[in-house]
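Contributing new records

If you add data, match the layout below exactly. Sequence lines come first and carry their own label; structure lines follow with theirs. Keep one chain per record. Anything else will be rejected by the validation script.
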Amino acid sequence: MRVPLSWLGEHVDLPDDVSLEHVHAALVSVGFEEEDVHVGDVTGPLVVGQVLELQPEPQKNGKTINWCQVAVGPDDVRGIVCGAHNFVVGDKVVVSLPGAVLPGPFPIAARKTYGHVSDGMIASTRELGLGDEHDGILLLSSLGLDPEVGTDAIALLGLDEAAVEINVTPDRGYALSMRGVAREYSHATGASFVDPVERVRPDAADGFAVRVVDDAPVRGRRAVSTFVTRVVRGIDASRPTPTWMSSRLRLAGVRSVSLPVDVTNYVMLELGQPIHGYDLGTLRGGLTVRRAATGEQLETLDGQVRTLHAEDLVIADEQGPVGIAGVMGGARTEMGAGTTDVLVEAATFDPVSVARSARRHKLPSEASRRFERGVDPAVSVPAAQRVVDLLVELAGGVADGLGSVLDESVPPLAIALPRDRAARLMGVDYSDDEVEAALRAVGADVAPSGDGWQVTPPTWRSDLRTSADLVEEVARITGYDRIPSVLPVAPPGRGLTREQKLRRRVASSLAAAGSVEVQAYPFVRPDQNRAFGSRDGGAVPAVVLANPLDTAAAQLRRSLLPGLLDVLRRNTARGLVDVSVFETGTVFLPLEATAYGTADVPAGAERPSDTVLAELGASLPSQPRHLAVAVLGDAVDRQPGQAAIAAGLADVLDALRVAVRAAGAQAVFRTGRHASLHPGRTADVLVAGEVVGVAGELLPTVSADLDLPRVVAVAEIDLDRVLALADVPVQPAPVSSYPAATQDLSLVVALDVPAGEVLDTVREGAGDLLESVRLVDDYRGAGLPDATKSLTFALRFRAADRTLTAAEATEAKQGAVRLAGERSGATLRE
């Protein structure tokens, strides 16, 4: 909201030495944000001149210019070339002398043109930034002005005005007016404020037919609460807008169009009430406020023919719509140069209807901006009268008794404010007098009631609905600086839970191992849920969104892998071909396909009942937290003496080992199957004997469909389940100072025996002396019985209190051989 200081000073007392900084500081102290300052963009010398001589000179290009002698001071006559022809000798004009800068910026200098040196420029209304008219130069007589030659035209035309700009939050729509800002400045400084509405004396009006028909209210809300019309006859729409008005409109960010339109805009900015004017001669019959018929069309003031929606609230006469209520009027009834009789309309429309129509038709306007935030219904009558008075005064019109007043507004409801509510919320010990004075300052009616007050908000504060809103006003008016800055003290004995600590440790371990943590969208397509949300690739139940951001991705994910693959695809498309990423996040696993809704949840500030909350909680699907890893490209870059090593299944298995170990458990892998993974390169992930996930390389066809390289390795585990199975706290192992004894062990087992099971058996059979065991070879071929394989393990033994002998290490190894033979039929390879 832009606030010209001279306009502000008409409604509230400003200091004689008022500055832009002072006004900004005052408004910031009552909760507004400082945006910018605006000063006149015309710099002098700009003076009043009088045409002494005028010599038309035809040119070879067919154009005729005027070589003028113009007096710009008592003894100062300048020769100026001018292409306009709407003036004669003796007219007083505005002259921009060399050194002046006009809006644009357009610097003025003496220059040779058409065979003369033009020592300045005679300015038009558009060139001065006072309006769009450019039919000729600005004649001061057309504004009713007859100043002395040489008078400073910047001050004369109000081009030296200044304005502050503030950001008005959506809940404070009343401040989108000079009336509202002046009241807030009064709150901040204590300056005397005079409500401009009180200066208006409305006349009675009757006889103009207005109907409201709303068969399809939006959310059950009343479409119109007030609708006021007045008629002014015999206006002269060609009269120029006074400079004081056009200057204020320009500083407020509204362009000057014509006198009748400028008057309606001026009153909107002054009182906050959007006004629309109709050419009464083009209206047919009375007005009806109704919903649009399906397929109905309207040509709006911007020249666009718009097809209306059944929810659009329109204003119509007997021939059809003449405007979209609260948004924009229609071209058929537009006020133009030939308009003589005007119907003035001031109404209060439903904010929801206005907001939806403005967005539906992409028609944001100053009017819709105010209606969306709430307009004071009590100001409709005085605002309409204010427009009538200005049209009578400035346009020569005559007020007619024809009009109407429809008022179905509901008075604001009283709000109970307990006496200690402000102190408890703000931490400030407000006195009763301070609370009452602050609420009365904002216009509320305050009545004692029991242990507190009954507070009735003013009609312009539709945002005040609860006791907390009232407390906020008390804090704002008495000063935010009184609210203490106190850091909350964390209660003792609390901190991260075991699961939170372990999840952080898992993520930190993967990041330390070189993988990058990402977050992908949880919204996926049905085919993505089928491909990765089930092992067999068949249809699976999914949570369906009722109002998705993307209709193609209308389901919540059952797996993290679709999001990770999108991340890989995005990176490879940008030339990043070596990628290792992971994500921890929730997945959604309903037992049956459904759309989870909130139809039973009450709207607004009403708390749902315990029964409703329990039903909603019970209806929610299982939402476990998963961990997923994906890699592609090279795990080791090519370098001198070293060929590149491609990333693959081994890398995601290593990542899972790191993650599961960080959670306090051990991961075991065995051959597995998954519909989207390579059948010979897929492994089930087991923790404590339970399958918790899957790892593998994508099928080449899947990679090709996703525009990814042929080899892409992925893995996903149920992290919540892993943490539940990891019942041993993660403790760093002590480092022994005694030397280690190393031995190798080769066991022959059947081909279908998983190597992971054999490794676990060796670890258990070797006992406490075994420090580590690794599978180092898997041989299948000559020298072995049919349908068998040889698994070679590297064993490292160490004691914490002594140096082991070779016999002790060998005995521990033999224990591993015996247990492997009992469980897996393993034999020692000769």
